[in-house]
Specification:
The chain is an alpha/beta fold and 304 residues long. It has ten helices and eight strands. The chain has an eight-stranded mixed β-sheet with strand order 1-2-4-3-5-6-7-8, sandwiched between helices. The mean pLDDT is 95.
Length: 304
Amino acid sequence: MPLHPQAQDFIERYMSDPGPGPAGMDLAGIQEARARDDLALQRGPLTHLPFVRDESAEDVPIRVYRADRGDGALPVVVFFHGGGWVSGGIKRSDALGRDLAIRTGAVVVSVDYRLAPEHPFPAAADDAWTVVRDIFARPAFYQCDGGVAVMGESSGGNLAAVAAWQARDAGLSLAHQVLIYPALDAAMDSPSYTEFATGLGLDAEEFAWFLSTYAGQADPADPRLSPMRLPSFAGLAPATVVTAEYDVLRDDGERYGARLAEAGVPVETRRFDGAIHGFFGLPGLFDQAVEARDYVAERLREAL
């Protein structure tokens, strides 16, 4: 499929003069960039909810959303934001957290995991697992009815996939995992890294910088970094994998879905034709973001 007209418009409006990018910044510049959000208005409205609360799971900050007043137990969706393990947070993903709570009818727990370079690997993965483990340990605190799913976007998809296999190995039963154009293999050797290397929202060189900033000297085969390298996919939680056609991470997401299916894990992989990396978080710019959110919410409601 050709590039979607809305994706082409985004590239022309926001990528024609992108500046130095994070790879050209020192730590102070990265921290300053985190504080800005030039796309805030495109992330959707901050819909009023009767229940939004900042808490912590052990020492990890979280934001808890419910679309009702908080009476009675519900399933829980744990959400991990994107940003290359370097940027993003619960503030930037606030509109999405609210939207997910409305669409799924679940308690949404958005995780403010530690960021690199101040906190390199495995800090983000450790924080993600801490929150998932805490929900199973304290279901009453989260008003959880027993159904727990993990969900993540881009680098957050990596954390969701890692938490999913850690839950399996710990004997904790996840109902579902949703991986939105996830980063799954530090090898960066799938064809889409070459095919879509530049000019499409997430350059291969830029992603390599994010990965190296987070991973440092870690073993690229460590499944906490590269869940694609898991020795066995058997017994992982049922999955939904969303990919974008014009995305360096596309092939890894689709390969992961195939690996899950080969292992007998129920999985549905859906590619959004003409889309670019990041579309899911920007409903103000991409009609496909709304379509993808409807799809993901339906999958979660069925699973939970």
